[in-house]
Amino acid sequence: MTASVQDTRTDRLIRFGFLAAMLIFFALPIVYLFSTSFKTPDDVLQGRLLPEAATLKNYPNAFAHVPVLRMIWNSVAVALLSGVITLVIAVPATYATIKLGAFRRTVPNITLASYAAPPIIALIPLFYLLQTAQLMDSIPGLALVHGLMNLPVAFWLLKSFVSDIPAEIDEAAWIDGAGYWHTLFAVILPLIFPGILATALICIILSYNEFLFASALTFSEASRTITVGMSLFQGERLVNFGQMAAASFTGMVPIYLIAFLFQKHLVGGLTQGSIK
Amino acid sequence: MVSINIQNLEKHYGKVKALHGLNLEIDDGEFIVLVGPSGCGKSTLLRCVAGLNPISGGDILFDGTPVGHLPPQERDLSMVFQNYALYPHLTVAQNLAFGLKVRKTSAEEIEKRVKWAADILAITPYLDRRPRALSGGQRQRVAMGRAMVKHSNAFLFDEPLSNLDAQLRVQMRKEIRALQQRIGVTSIYVTHDQVEAMTMGDRIVVMKDGRIEQVGSPAELYTAPRTRFVAGFIGSPQMSFVTAQADGHQMTLSDGTVLTSATAATGAVTLGIRPEHFLDGTSEANRLTLDVTTQQVVGTSTSYFATLGDGEIEVIRQGSDTERPATLALGIRPEHIMVFDKDDQRIAA
Amino acid sequence: MATPPAASFGSDRGANQRKRAEWSMTLPLMAGLAIFAGYPLVYLVLLAFSRSDLGQQFQGFVGLENFDWALSGTNFSGSVGHAILFALIVSLVQLALGLYLAVILSKIVRGGRWLRTIVLLPLMTPPVMVGIAWKLILNPSGGWLNGILLRTGLIDAPISFFGNHDLAFPAIMLADTWQWTPLIVILCFAILQGVPHDVEEAAALDGAYPKRIFWTVTLPMIAPALLSVYLLRVIMALKTFDLVYTLTFGGPGNATNIATFEIWKTALREFDAGLAAAQTLMFAITVSVVTLPIVLLHNHLEKRR
């Protein structure tokens, strides 16, 4: 804000109070989940923020009870594979649509329409498709579905990065004799690398977090993802909150790692792609 | 290096015609400048030659071979863009080498040519830098270098100097022209700046509304413009125009002033006089005394503005005159009064 | 210069090469969307007019029977109402909170890195885990909120937020707001960064105070962008499924039964694929009808600028 725009002291106090309240609001559930993962069953019932006698047992017990690490590994595998599928399809298509003007009305419209449609629409048909393709209950099968699911998101995120590159750069490459695919790989890809990274991260997170398709398309231990596993934790007769919190928190670690390491890329990707 | 032959070239965007059947022959090694106001089609023409815009009719020939159907990749041209369009992720050396690598030129040959271009352009110290770390003038040179290394059919320039400051622009004009003469490459240069056109081109193509108004050497365009548009566009300061009734060599202005022109005409005409062609009132023909309305001192010269007939005329004089005279006593030679008919075509003397 | 239409150059080699590149680059995307969106739509239409269960589809053509039954014999229309109500309300609340927070953040110069991380975490959290975290807080036995309320003596017996007919929906909205307000903050922050300072400065020179400048100058300028954010959020909120699944399973009764959950139950709990398909189609149409006015309003505001 500019120097000419002055605020009163009360305004500043109100703002600070609201900011503090919101930050506590954002942090609290994660903090509480984390602290619960160290609580004994008795401790849990107290409903206090911090455990009275912290225990580390919840983690090994949860891992023994549910194959947490295996499910996290499944989720990571699905997320990475689906990210690759999404980018391999979306990057050339975005380049062709934005820079070559290929189907420049059709592609944005159908991607938008398929994003707006609730994913539940695709659930039943994809269920049968995977069954026919013998990909049901497999990591590649779910990765394929997630990879296709994230196409509209990837297209809209990449779109703004690609259109930020001046048209003359491509044209210079063409005149230098580089074909369209060659231009994409040798000139455009290095230039939009930050955008590709941000898009990849966002697609990976969306896949890792996804539940609806994962719950319907994976069920055996070999392919079940962590979100599905955690939802099953819920249905059990005797819920051990400490163990559930321990397993949940472990399941969130990969995503939080990404958030910590790449926060700049993530925020940049989200804002670049959505604000035109 | 090739001769370029443009035949009946047409370009339309949907129903809008951008180029109306252009014909132009460019000799091998010639430096041609396309000039005109924005929207006249000069950039479109250049991009058609480059293959960046597909053509809608007619053809383009390089040394007699039609190339209108070829993609830009196969025309073997070099182009210097207004914003230089250097590859931001590559070093200067890699920028120069890109086009050669695409063509699978050998590594030694690439090195040789990059060194050759860098020496000529004095950019050798910057070969390992990225474009971001260069000044505007240096980027301009790298763009030139990228064009040079390829030994291409022709150079295409799309307003390459308009992002530079005035001083550097004047210097780069000279450098580009000297380089072009040294290499002897056929060049097409697009600009909206008529001074640039006059100082650089072997020949100038003046364009308007997707048509070629006139093609000629700078001197021809200055002394013998074919239309009122060319007369007004070429020359700085601009030519002044006044309407008149012609009866033979006698031109009567709306305020009753009678001027004698070397050109004969009848009926309604427009007279054009260049600011630098007004003489001191002591000279022989066409004596005038005009009230000065405003005056601008431009260092070595001074411009005076005065009303003549139904037009405002500009008079330019050497020296900086800080005091505004109330009136100016002027003379004009008859051969310096150009006469344009009602269709804005110049009537030959 | 925009890319020209290449229609008139069928025989042209340059245009052909370009066409080939365009097709080879876009075809995988088209195919992907055809598999993910096109094929399901066709399949759904066929299912909707047939008697189909999950194990055996297309047992016979039944006309509009599935649609009829969905509207008259099930909780479907109520669940659509819930979904729309949910989407419109949470999006509005989150837009208001997010915008205000973004305004505050745009005045803060330092500490951006930490604020950004805290704001990012809820957004990144898998929705299923969001459900678990909020369940821990709101649970009657051992929930933090109940713990506080009991200790301070505000209540005598623990409240079952997810078991109470009136509290369950707001509780889900609270969890949803926790997760998605950060996205709005990030987007609104970027929008505010894009507002040219000179306009605000001109208004300040005209004697307007900050609050007034925000309401009369800044807000009208960013209104179309805010509406886009709202639209995006409404579309996303209409897809909500995970939170309901983990927190309430649609209950108590049908209090939090939203359309996506109802369809899921029909398909994967009752195995009635035909009925679920009919419900899905009707829900998809509803989504378009709900989002259309927002799109029109957005276009209207955009034009006025």
Rounded mean pLDDT of chain A is 88
Residues in helix, % of chain C: over 70%
Ends of chain A: how far apart? 22 Å
**Number of DSSP strand runs of chain C:** 0
> Mind summarizing the main beta sheet of chain A?
none
Structural class of chain C: mainly alpha
The name of the CATH superfamily of the largest domain in chain A reads MetI-like
Domain ABC transmembrane type-1 (chain A): 72-262
Transmembrane segments (chain A): 12-34, 76-98, 110-130, 142-162, 183-208, 241-262
Keywords (chain A): Cell membrane, Membrane, Transmembrane, Transmembrane helix, Transport
Organism (chain A): Celeribacter indicus
What is shown here, in short?
Chain A has 276 residues and is mainly alpha-helical.
List keywords for this structure.
heterotrimer, A: 276 residues, mainly alpha, MetI-like fold, 2 domains, disordered N terminus, C: 305 residues, 12 helices, 72% helix
Strand and helix map with partners:
The complex is a heterotrimer of chains A (276), B (349) and C (305).
Chain A: H1 9-36, H2 41-46, H3 58-65, H4 68-99, H5 106-116, H6 120-132, H7 139-149, H8 151-163, H9 167-175, H10 180-191, H11 193-209, H12 212-217, H13 226-235, H14 241-261, H15 263-274
Helix pairs in contact in A: 1-14, 3-14, 4-7, 4-8, 4-11, 4-14, 5-8, 8-11, 8-15, 9-10, 11-15, 13-14
Chain B: E1 4-13, E2 16-26, E3 31-35, H1 42-50, E4 57-62, E5 65-66, E6 78-80, H2 92-102, H3 107-121, H4 136-148, E7 154-158, H5 166-183, E8 186-191, H6 194-200, E9 203-208, E10 211-216, H7 218-223, H8 228-233, E11 240-253, E12 258-273, E13 279-280, E14 287-298, E15 301-308, E16 311-318, E17 327-331, E18 338-340
Parallel strand pairs in B: 3-8, 3-9, 6-7, 7-8
Antiparallel strand pairs in B: 1-2, 1-4, 4-5, 9-10, 11-12, 12-18, 13-17, 14-15, 14-17, 15-16
Chain C: H1 13-48, H2 65-72, H3 76-107, H4 112-124, H5 127-138, H6 144-151, H7 168-193, H8 197-205, H9 210-238, H10 242-247, H11 259-268, H12 273-304
Describe what you observe in this structure.
The complex is a heterotrimer of chains A (276), B (349) and C (305). Chain A has two domains: 9-46; 59-273, MetI-like (MetI-like fold). Helix content of chain A is 76%, strand content 0%. Chain A contains 15 helices and no strands. The two termini of chain A are 22 Å apart. Chain B is built from eight helices and 18 strands. Chain B is elongated. Chain B starts with a strand and ends in a 9-residue tail after the last strand. Helices cover 72% and strands 0% of the residues of chain C. The B-C interface holds B 13-14, 43-44, 47, 51-54, 56, 69-74 and C 1, 4-6, 8-9, 11-15, 17-18. Chain A: Residues 72-262 form the ABC transmembrane type-1 domain. Chain A: This is Binding-protein-dependent transport systems inner membrane component.
